[in-house]
Specification:
Distance between the termini: 33 Å
Structural class: alpha/beta
Largest sheet: 4 strands, parallel
Number of helices: 9
Number of strands: 6
Helix content: 25-40%
Oligomer: single chain
Low-confidence stretches: none
Mean pLDDT: 94
Length: 234
């Protein structure tokens, strides 16, 4: 499977059984066939496991769960909701920044590169880690969900209190998986509508996920996240 070279050792240890499973070999074959056929797939193979490379398992404090990667050229780089520097900020991320400003007063970022969050222990995970160009959900049901369920379970089984931000019905469907992996009350599960323009006004705006996350982390001695994104160096 391409993209594993930078995977943090903590994830390798926790997920080795998944990497060795037949379904992952089948998924690898699918991705290889797409590439051989000249079909653009995002993110690039080297970035497919970027979330697990930047945020070690034992450093995870928050999980923000997305669906599948952005399907336009030059957008996805392995972190849910994030886009590469210089890329126009997608509508869902615009709404995330609007809620962040309303919640904590941080001015809206001029860029959508969320790597600074990942380096603080925010696991920016999609439930599906690849997509064909221009074809959202094209790699759903091919095995990624089993893999990312194992990622979510590995985080939830740890004793460290963690916040799971589940935005939208697709992400909220993972709440029972989290609850089954840990005693009641260990983790904070924050659910709301998805930040997309179609649903943000039905419960995402006003949900205050960032202040609620920091309050929980501080209460449990895990520090807080600096949600204000630094300017990009030029």
């Amino acid at each position: 499977m391409d993209g594993l070279a930078g995977l943090h050792p903590s994830w390798r240890a926790a997920l080795q059984g998944e990497f060795d499973a037949p379904y992952m070999r089948d998924l690898d074959a699918l991705l290889a066939a797409e590439a051989a056929g000249g079909v653009p797939v995002y993110p690039p193979a080297a970035d497919r496991f970027r979330a697990l490379a930047l945020t070690p398992l034992d450093a995870v404090r928050v999980v923000i769960l997305g669906q599948d990667p952005y399907h336009g050229a030059g957008q996805a780089h392995g972190l849910s909701f994030s886009v590469r520097p210089g890329t126009r900020i997608p509508p869902s991320l615009v709404n995330i920044f609007k809620e962040l400003q309303a919640d904590l007063g941080h001015p809206r970022s001029a860029h959508g590169f969320l790597e600074a969050w990942a380096r603080q222990g925010v696991l920016l995970l999609n439930t599906v880690l690849s997509v064909r160009e221009g074809a959202p959900a094209s790699h759903r049901g091919q095995g990624w969900e089993r893999f990312t369920d194992a990622v979510i379970r590995a985080v939830a089984e740890r004793a460290d209190p963690t916040v799971f931000l589940l935005w939208g019905a697709h992400a909220q469907a993972k709440a029972p998986l989290i609850a089954a992996a840990a005693p009641a009350g260990r983790h904070l599960i924050v659910t709301s509508a998805h930040p997309s323009p179609l649903s943000a006004r039905t419960g995402f705006f006003g949900s205050r996920p960032f202040s609620r996350t920091n309050a929980f982390l501080a209460e449990h001695g895990r520090g807080t996240i600096d949600w204000a994104l630094p300017p990009l160096s030029v």
